[in-house]
Design goal:
Pfam families: Asp (PF00026)
Oligomer: single chain
CATH class of the largest domain: Mainly Beta
Organism: Gigaspora rosea
Keywords: Aspartyl protease, Disulfide bond, Hydrolase, Protease, Signal, Zymogen
Mean pLDDT: 91
CATH superfamily of the largest domain: Acid Proteases
GO molecular function: aspartic-type endopeptidase activity
Number of strands: 27
Helix content: under 10%
Shape: globular
Distance between the termini: 28 Å
InterPro entries: Aspartic_peptidase_A1 (IPR001461), Pepsin-like_dom (IPR034164), PEPTIDASE_A1 (IPR033121), Peptidase_aspartic_dom_sf (IPR021109)
Length: about 350
């Protein structure tokens, strides 16, 4: 959730069957507002957190936060944790739709059956804006690179790798569309769930930002719509599970919608709509490989808003769940790569 050379690999030998590693997977539930969340435990207290590729900090509300936004969510009680140690360093984190502030603490974090010892995390004492109150999740579990963090500490997954709590320095994400039953996705820590995709994973090198690895940034080759290439060149995109849609600079969004049959632009609010029953064939081309997008991920059911809208970060695209639901994706923090494969139907 942002503040507003391709490598082809066929390493099936490295893939461990998910049946052998179920304890390292987290069931994800799709939020009614944004993203996917799952459970973790800090000091014997369970929280729902958004697993967010677009940020790198872990935080939960503090018992000392008395605002309404905090009071309707689970809050961390320091006295109930035997592993907690206060640090007290103040922090402030700005997101595209809100802001949080508080102080830091240290404790053991358990997620997907994996424990991180001595993880520094944020205890939020103030939440600003109206973004967090309606969310089903209590806090955020950042899964970007360490240099992106505002708290200035290794991410929980980085610590899992350094403490050898996981076998491999990567995690896999599978996202479903429906929230009709139970979990609607899976986060597999330190492993890859080979039951969720077909063929081989195609790996792409992550780009730096300001000379550092911060965001999950890739070069995007192009987009095709109904077999027509849009001829986008030299586009970079941040992949972010904290965003439901795809955001592009205004000119790129306009180009995209010229090829979508029946699309229209609303001058009043600057958004695009497309027919709710659109049948256009859209594919994103990354590393020379085309990834088809299901029609249900082109438009919202209720109001026919397009899942591509104007907006960007430093002139880069932001590619969210509308794309990621169509692929199984793997994020390697040591090799600095993202792998994609078509999901199993």
């Amino acid at each position: 959730m942002l503040k507003y050379q391709n490598i082809y690999v066929t390493d099936q030998d490295k893939l461990v069957s998910a049946k052998e590693r179920l304890s390292e997977s987290v069931n994800l539930t799709i939020s009614n507002v944004v993203g996917y969340y799952g459970e973790l435990t800090i000091g014997n207290q369970t929280f729902k957190t958004l697993f967010d590729l677009g940020s790198s900090d872990l935080w939960v509300p503090s018992q000392n936060c008395t605002q309404y936004d905090c009071s309707i969510h689970k809050r961390f009680n320091e006295s109930l944790s035997k592993t907690f140690n206060p640090i007290g360093t103040p922090f402030d984190i700005e997101y595209g739709a809100g802001e949080v502030a508080g102080i830091t603490g240290k404790g053991n974090v358990l997620v997907g059956g994996i424990e991180t010892v001595g993880q520094i995390f944020g205890l939020v004492q103030e939440e600003y804006g109206d973004f967090f109150a309606p969310q089903e999740f209590d806090g955020i579990f950042g899964m970007g690179f360490n240099d992106l963090g505002f708290i200035k500490t290794p991410t929980p997954f980085s610590n899992m790798v350094e403490q050898k709590a996981v076998t491999n320095p990567y995690f896999g994400i599978y996202l479903e569309r429906s929230n009709d039953t139970g979990h609607t996705g899976t986060l597999t820590l330190g492993d890859i769930d080979t039951t969720k995709f077909t063929g081989n994973l195609n790996y792409n090198n992550v780009s730096t930002y300001d000379g550092k690895y911060m965001y999950w940034i890739l070069d995007v080759g192009d987009i095709s719509i109904n077999g027509n290439r849009l001829n986008f060149k030299n586009r970079k995109a941040i992949f972010d599970t904290g965003v439901n849609i795809v955001l592009m600079p205004e000119e790129d969004a306009a180009t995209y919608h010229k090829f979508i049959n029946g699309s229209s632009f609303n001058d009043h609010d600057g958004t695009y709509t497309v027919p709710c029953n659109t049948m256009d064939q859209v594919a994103y081309i990354i590393g020379g490989v085309s990834y088809n997008i299901d029609q249900s991920d082109l438009v919202t059911e209720s109001d026919c808003f397009s899942f591509v809208q104007p907006g960007s970060f430093d002139n880069m695209w932001i590619i969210g769940d509308a794309f990621l639901r169509n692929v199984y994706s793997v994020y390697n923090i040591k090799d600095f790569t993202i792998g994609f494969a078509p999901i199993s139907k």
